[in-house]
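Figure 3 (text version): structure tokens given as input.
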């Protein structure tokens, strides 16, 4: 038998408005409602049953005002509903805190009684009617003892109609002012309900007179029992959450520690391994709010994106004889599907000076419009297969990137086009924050370095995702070029206004061997950045020994380390980085492709090294997942979490993935206040998903 518990104020219309929603076949109040079909669908979709019993909770005044009208309505509409009035006889109204406690005691008792009898799955609660404290108490009772559903009745202004009238005779204009809303459904009883000892329960004892249950006792014994148990449970919960938070090597989002322990355990036991439930797991990963702290502008675009950038550049074409010859030969090779010829043409282009190469690259790529699959074969060839694209070395990996970066991004149009792609990608991946990095001085055939930055800022400033820029200086380039990027970063950071905020740090990249040989001179070179307290990330421990990481942290004052794959070789340094909270930017796909690691979904990698991600997590290192060069690696930031799971024995639990995501937010080059704001936003989205 379905039961409705409802608090009654001074008007009697509410009972008809609620019953009209649940019992629409017997009492079709909403048949002429503008949203009748939606209301009907809501009831049927959520399996809400017609009401058989109504328990009306009343003060003395509300009972006196409504009893006759409600009974007359029930009789006039020929509704077969058992009606009960639960009356606090000593309360004319709720006018004090003590009055509210007496009413709360009764509400809790009635809802608990349904739970005790095993009828919570047939219990419906109305949050409208009576004093606001009564609505609040009913809602809290639902969370304590469970119910099938809670319903609100919203109204546009004052609503009144003749209760005795047939529903079809009531003006539609009146009915359309009423909006029943399903507030929440299938609410389970809390752990506290199980802790109540039935033999010690003190229920208020009513005097029963027909359908009237009259309560004269002003004591709140049952409420006192519940509150005592709540205090004990709160203390246990605080101890549990404290133990949970400080017993784990890596911290997770604080709000997750407030979840039900069963839910926390579920997140810890639910693993993503990249083998089972692929579609479901990827869908979850894409929905999660994320950061990306290590993404190269010059390695971002996929084949479709490269062609669009190339087209944007073609306004600069001079239609020279060389250009026409290149276009004809490329189109001819495409038509013949001549892969060898296409590679030969590309090899010729790639050796040209950059002053002309960017336009020739654009003309070449433009010819592949609508032929993206063929372009993929040209660029990656046998590396299109994941089990082949492994352990190819940094030089071969960078060679793939010759199709983009400074070979293409030499115009305002090109930069604006790739920014559009960045924004689309951020939306697709639910990115809240992204640190993009590039070397603006490498994009200056048609622009000045500061103009490059200004264009990026202008195009990205209004994006839903917050974009920031890290200036890259390459240690394997000439000292002059490195100093140019250092000076550019310093000058832009010293400017007042938005551009200064847009620049969030400096990255020392390029061949690591150079750093090993020239650590002291590099420190002297970057000293202006250190003196201005700029945040620094350094590509380190990707292709050389852990000693290079030591240099990066202690001699070059790195705030974050890009890759850091060799950190596992030095336990002492690992402990130091944990204490310093120095974050490691792991990029699973590029790490797999350049250096080679085991992927547990690919049998041919079974003898390769174990990826250090899990070890870093267990040691409490602030490791975060990044995309590096998604266009080269054929990935995106969501797939990087999936790749990380595949490169971890047994996979990664959802709890661990959320820990990695949090590490991204706390390790960003933003102020403490900005980080907190982003984390709060992320937590709101995460709670909707878990």
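Below: residues designed for each position.
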């Amino acid at each position: 038998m379905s039961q409705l518990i409802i608090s009654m104020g001074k008007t009697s219309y509410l009972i008809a408005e609620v019953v009209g929603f649940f019992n629409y076949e017997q009492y079709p109040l909403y048949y002429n409602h503008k949203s009748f079909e939606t209301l009907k669908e809501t009831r049927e979709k959520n399996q809400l049953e017609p009401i058989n019993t109504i328990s009306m909770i009343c003060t003395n005044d509300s009972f006196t005002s409504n009893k006759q009208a409600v009974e007359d309505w029930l009789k006039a509409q020929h509704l077969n509903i058992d009606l009960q009035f639960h009356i606090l006889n000593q309360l004319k109204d709720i006018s004090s805190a003590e009055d509210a406690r007496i009413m709360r005691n009764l509400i809790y008792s009635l809802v608990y009684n349904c739970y005790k009898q095993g009828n919570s799955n047939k219990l419906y609660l109305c949050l409208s009617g009576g004093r606001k404290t009564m609505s609040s108490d009913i809602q809290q009772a639902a969370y304590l003892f469970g119910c099938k559903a809670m319903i609100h009745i919203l109204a546009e202004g004052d609503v009144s109609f003749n209760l005795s009238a047939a529903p079809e005779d009531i003006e539609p204009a009146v009915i359309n002012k009423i909006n029943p809303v399903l507030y929440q459904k299938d609410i389970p009883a809390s752990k506290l309900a199980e802790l109540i000892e039935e033999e010690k329960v003190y229920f208020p004892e009513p005097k029963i007179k027909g359908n009237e249950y009259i309560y004269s006792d002003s004591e709140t014994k049952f409420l006192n029992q519940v509150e005592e148990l709540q205090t004990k449970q709160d203390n246990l919960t605080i101890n549990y959450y404290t133990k949970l938070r400080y017993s784990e090597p890596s911290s997770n989002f604080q709000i997750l520690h407030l979840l039900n322990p069963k839910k926390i355990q579920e997140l810890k036991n639910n693993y993503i391994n990249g083998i089972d439930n692929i579609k479901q797991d990827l869908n979850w990963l894409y929905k999660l709010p994320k950061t990306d702290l290590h993404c190269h502008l010059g390695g971002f675009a996929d084949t479709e994106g490269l062609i669009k950038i190339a087209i944007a550049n073609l306004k600069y074409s001079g239609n020279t004889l060389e250009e026409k010859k290149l276009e004809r030969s490329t189109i001819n090779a495409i038509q013949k599907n001549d892969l060898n010829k296409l590679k030969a043409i590309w090899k010729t282009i790639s050796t040209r000076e950059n002053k002309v190469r960017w336009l020739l690259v654009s003309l070449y790529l433009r010819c592949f419009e609508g032929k993206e699959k063929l372009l993929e074969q040209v660029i990656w060839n046998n590396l299109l297969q994941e089990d082949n694209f492994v352990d190819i070395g940094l030089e071969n990996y960078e060679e793939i990137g010759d199709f983009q970066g400074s070979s293409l991004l030499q115009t305002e149009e090109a930069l604006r086009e790739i920014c559009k792609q960045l924004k689309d990608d951020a939306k697709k991946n639910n990115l809240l924050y992204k640190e993009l990095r590039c070397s603006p001085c490498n994009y200056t055939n048609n622009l000045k370095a500061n103009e490059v930055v200004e264009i990026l800022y202008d195009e990205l400033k209004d994006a839903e995702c917050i974009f920031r820029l890290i200036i890259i200086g390459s240690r394997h380039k000439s000292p002059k070029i490195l100093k140019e990027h250092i000076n550019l970063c310093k000058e832009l950071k010293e400017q007042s206004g938005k551009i200064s905020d847009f620049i969030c740090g400096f990255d020392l990249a390029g061949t690591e061997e150079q750093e090993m040989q020239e650590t002291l001179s590099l420190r002297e070179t970057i000293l202006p950045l250190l003196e201005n307290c700029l945040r620094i990330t350094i590509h380190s421990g990707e292709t050389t020994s852990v000693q290079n990481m030591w240099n990066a942290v202690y001699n070059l004052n790195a705030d974050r380390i890009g890759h850091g794959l060799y950190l596992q070789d030095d336990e002492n340094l690992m402990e130091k980085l944990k204490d310093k909270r120095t974050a490691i930017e792991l990029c699973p796909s590029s790490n797999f492709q350049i250096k080679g690691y085991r992927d547990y979904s690919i049998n041919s990698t079974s003898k390769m090294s174990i990826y250090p991600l899990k070890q870093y997590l267990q040691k409490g290192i602030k490791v975060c997942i990044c995309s590096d060069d998604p266009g080269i690696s054929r990935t995106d930031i969501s797939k990087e979490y999936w790749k990380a799971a595949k490169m971890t024995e047994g996979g990664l639990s959802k709890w661990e993935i959320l820990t990695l995501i949090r590490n991204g937010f706390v390790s960003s080059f933003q102020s403490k206040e900005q980080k907190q704001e982003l984390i709060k936003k992320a937590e709101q989205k995460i709670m909707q998903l878990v």
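Residues 221-247 form the longest helix (27 residues).
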